[in-house]
Amino acid sequence: RDVTGRTQFQSSEMGICAVDATGLVKAGPIPGEATVMARYMNVIAVCHVAIPLPGIVSGDVYAGLPRQNFIDELAWDKLRTLGITPSESADDAKFLRRVYLDIIGRLPTPEEVREFLANGEGDGGPAAAETALSHPTSLAEAAPKRQRIVEELLQRPEYADHWAAKWADLLRPNPYRVGIKAVMTYDAWIRDSFRRNKPYDQFVRELITARGSTWDNGASVLFRDRREPQEITTLVSQLFLGIRLECAKCHHHPFEKYGQDDFYSFAAYFSRLGFKGTGLSPPISGSEEIVLTKKSGTVEHPLTKVAMQPRPLFGSVPKPEKVGTAEDDPREELAAWITAEENPFFAKVIVNRVWADLMGRGLVEPIDDLRATNPPTNGPLLDALAAEFRAGKCDLKHIIRTICTSHVYGL
Predict the structure, then answer these.
(1) How far is CA 282 from the centre of its chain?
(2) In whole angstroms, what is the distance from residue 34 CA to residue 373 CA?
(3) Residue 301, phi then psi, degrees to nearest 5
(4) Mean per-residue pLDDT, 369-393
(5) pTM for this prediction
(6) CA 373 remoteness from chain centre
(7) Per-residue pLDDT, 327
(8) What is the C-alpha separation between 112 and 313, in angstroms, rounded?
(9) 133 φ/ψ angles, rounded to the nearest 5 degrees
């Protein structure tokens, strides 16, 4: 039957594309993109609307743009659709400042700037930079020079410290809650992971399945800080999948298909998490604690009081890799499902996070809110980056290198 009158309609950008209570969509005067959502109970449908800039841009403009890798091709395709022409290319000095800040977190020294500018490859000096601005295709000649500096920066020790600091901020260890020594152990584990260029899927599996002493295994501090299954669920789903389950803790998610059954089934993966030690005693919490897997434990549905069985949000659980001695730890299954190649969210959320770090804004914003009602600005590009990340064996340096050596990055 017709449920239009009971359906909720919503536009992501009312100024671009408005929608009324009957579902009638009306385009506004502003060019851009919007997503219109229709929701009836737990069924959601979306419609993507694009309003290009007025006027016609010759196809020759896009055909003549440089293409260093697949990022450029997909970016030009999107700009062509919206009738947008790209900015000019940045000169060498601006590029060097940008890439230093992005990869190692500091400005280049005057000596490093002079050396880079003096390196002649068709774009080293001011006159050549001026030529590149007026003829962007000449920047293709600069690719080897810029590629070399990107590679050099990725091998510097500052790279590991800079990107480890980003992850320390995301994982948010609180020394006043979990203890200073535990936080230092946590920080050392994160930094060591980046210094060894640990594959990202391994990094995530070690975090989710961490056990042992918070003074010996830094990854285990994740569970010293967030001790309850419900707390851990919202962190893990948002950080490693880009799925925000916080709303589903109390009611059905207003913009997603997930409800309380999904939330507490996911939380059940942490039902057997146990601790040995004196626990927390803020604001000092100086003691050691052992994170372990208990023989039993349950998570109950808050309304039905039924003990929930561990269940992924979608799909099936692959056979996990056994880690340590607790082979029947439900977290092993969860880690295997999250990092599985069949799980599209895992790769998409991390490449979107890296893109935002390097480009200033994610292909999806907020960067950890991936859902049908919040689509990427360039879906094919996000898919291609995720596929490249998987093909590169979840190497974060590889995806940073790919983005930073694209022509788009150097605009």
Answers:
(1) 32
(2) 10
(3) -70, 130
(4) 95
(5) 0.89
(6) 17
(7) 58
(8) 49
(9) -65, -40
**Token pair of 343, please?**
């799980």
Closest CA to 406 of 99, 93, 157: 99
Is residue 124 over pLDDT 80?
no
* CA–CA gap between residue 405 and residue 35 (Å, rounded): 31
Question: What residue has token string 């449908």?
Answer: 45
Residue with tokens 């851009």: 32
> Which has the closest alpha carbon to 186: 161, 207, 160?
207
**What are the phi and psi torsion angles at 29 (to 5°)?**
-85, -5
- State pLDDT tens for residues 93-123: 999 999 999 999 999 999 999 999 998 764 4
Q: How many C-beta atoms surround the C-beta of residue 239 within 10 A?
A: 18
Query: CA-CA distance, 376 to 369, in Å (whole number)?
Result: 10
**CB neighbourhood size of 193 (10 A):** 23
Q: At what angle do helices 143-154 and 157-171 cross, to 10 degrees?
A: 70
Q: What is the largest CA-CA distance in the chain?
A: 73
Nearest alpha carbon to residue 108 among 45, 171, 63, 152: 152
* Paired tokens of 390: 């998987």
Instruction: Indicate the burial class of 52 (C-beta count within 10 angstroms; 0-12, 13-18, 19 or more).
Output: middle
Nearest alpha carbon to residue 216 among 190, 181, 185: 185
Rg from Cα positions in the chain: 24
Residues 6+ apart with CB under 8 A from 127: none
Tokens 């590629």 belong to residue: 147
Tokens representing 97? 């400042």
What's the pLDDT at 248? 76
pLDDT digits (tens, 9 = 90+) for 242-269: 999 888 777 666 666 788 899 999 999 9
Task: Tell me what pLDDT residue 122 has.
Answer: 42
